[in-house]
Predict the structure.
Amino acid sequence: MEKTRVQVRTLVLLGLLKGGWSFQVTLSKDPVEVGDDVVFEVRSPDKPETGSWQFRNEQVVFWIGAKLVVGLKYNDRIDVNYETGSLKLMSVKLSDSGDYFVHLQKAGEPPFSLTGNATLHIIDSVTKVTVNSPSPYPILNNTFSLTCNVSGNADSRSWLKDGQPLSAGDRITFSKDNSAVSFNPVLVSDNGTYQCIANSYFRNGTSTGYSLVVNYGPEQVSITGPDASRIGSTAVFTCSARSQPVCEYTWFINGKLVAKGSPYKIHPVNSSNDGSYTCTAWNSLTERNSSAVKMHHVLDSASSWSRHAVAMVIGTLVSAAVLV
């Protein structure tokens, strides 16, 4: 964000003009960033002999000649130019914002006594920007949101996805001050790296990337493996599913739990391995499951294997004929 050049603002302090003496105060900068120094510079035609500065009815400093009395809150934070009455305030805080009153005197006949005030504005710039979510993880077709947290004062916020500006749409909305973005619902297409940019008068801040990965599934569960196996042989069955994160797999034969994980290997095959194979996929984050079923026949001899192979071929040809 391009910053506007701060023009030094000159405040003409008018007081009791006995003897025709007047002076001006110039703020070295306004507004001032937290932690910086600022000078209330007094340009007077003559040297004041006594003076004081006050803030919120509390004494900042009082002096007679070169004898200085500093308010308790301002020890090691102020410096006074006795020649002009200028005040330097160091390491400013947000609580230093407000109106400052100056009173200067000079001996004479009659004595000169002048007062005036100047207003100081302090801004706490952006120092840290982070992105997090009130939800532990995004789940497909649920509502999900990201929050932009800023340390310091942000004039505005904006969002990036994969380094490009993020725009609102039918599903994507921003809070009034852009401090949050909501997805309703969140989709796999929302996967990406999100950043928040916080803009302030003096400086901008950008968060580190928040990696959004939408959790879903299991979907399209399938089993691969032999339709038939001979007794004594080895049979391997694999279960797969579309899922984020990776699913847990459980195997059942004829309704009885037999194994967990994938692949599922049987060696040696026996007659009890004949029947209906069910693989159930479980996603612990979405708390959803889905299953697939496959028939597996156990053959006890080479002749049985041949008859099974012929039956399979005939079945395939019959199906093709019906289709024709």
